[in-house]
Amino acid sequence: MNFLLIIGGLILLILGGNWLLKSAVAISLKLNISKVVIGMTVVSFATSAPELIVSINAALNGASDLALGNVIGSNVANLGLVLGITLILGGMEVEKTFYKIDWPVMMIASALLFIFLANDRVVVQYEGFILFSFLIIFLIYLLRFQKNKNEEELEEGAVPLSVPKTIFFFVIGGCGLYGGSELLINGATSLATEFGVGQRVIGVTVVSIGTSVPELAASIIAIIKKEKAISLGNLIGSNIFNILAVIGITSIITPISLLDSRLLTNDIYWMLGISFLILPLVLMPKKYNLNWKAGAFLLIAYGTFIYMTL
Q: How far apart are CA 186 and CA 67, in angstroms?
């Protein structure tokens, strides 16, 4: 029964995320925003919505480790599993803004989360405001300085959804995310109790992989359509949103306490490590290019992470 709840919750999260993504992209097309910015902002926020809803729901229900494990595990999954699979399917060229803006912001956000947790093992309200404020500054920078760049990358002939359809997909997407998060949290917490494992393990594995499915779907579609800017921008942006928006907003609503010390002594180091390793992979052996070898390395790293977690 718990597995059915989890599967049902994941299906609703995937559908809800996809519907929300449709409405989000439609809005961005109406605003004439470039694909690079769409990938870093609109797509990233839409694909991070499952993590946001699940983490808020988990924290409010006293399952803080599930909320933290979900975000940390999702960030590792985005770069290890999702990027790894994406690169196996096809290499990609990387924009120079990756190491000038995107990667540094992701590392700063990751470091802030580590500092806040290492300090007193809890992310409190004012720390949530710091994280969320950093996100707002980052978004303002992107929209102000990069909105008019790469306009030629906008898909020719792309027809935005009508306003009623955009609103419809936004509403049903939100409902799908909420319903899916309810089923997923109930199933995951019950499963943890049934098998005698902590919420951290379920959060870092089952829940994080499930909530990373929208990122995987968006990245594979971007590869198929040869929209590489959206693919890498989506993943980096999603990791930034997971920390600054998901943890930020959740901790503003209710403090997130760390109960299982392995989140701080093991899991978060994996998140920091794999985030850092993306830079040398981008710069070596060929600058601004990621190939299948990098993908295989990331998949092996992710497999090791899962093995050590279990």
A: 13
Cβ neighbors of 169 (< 8 A, separation 6 or more) are 19, 20, 22, 23, 26, 161
Among residues 234, 168, 138, 227, the alpha carbon closest in space to that of 22 is found at 168
Do 285 and 294 form a contact (C-beta atoms < 8 A)? no
Amino acid at 264: L
pLDDT digits (tens, 9 = 90+) for 33-49: 766 677 667 777 777 88
Q: What angle do CA 35, 38, 39 make, to 5 degrees?
A: 90
Number of H helices, E strands in the chain: 17, 4
Distance CA 85, CA 72 (A): 19
Give the tens place of pLDDT for each residue, 253-268: 999 999 999 999 999 9
Token pair recorded at residue 234: 């989506």
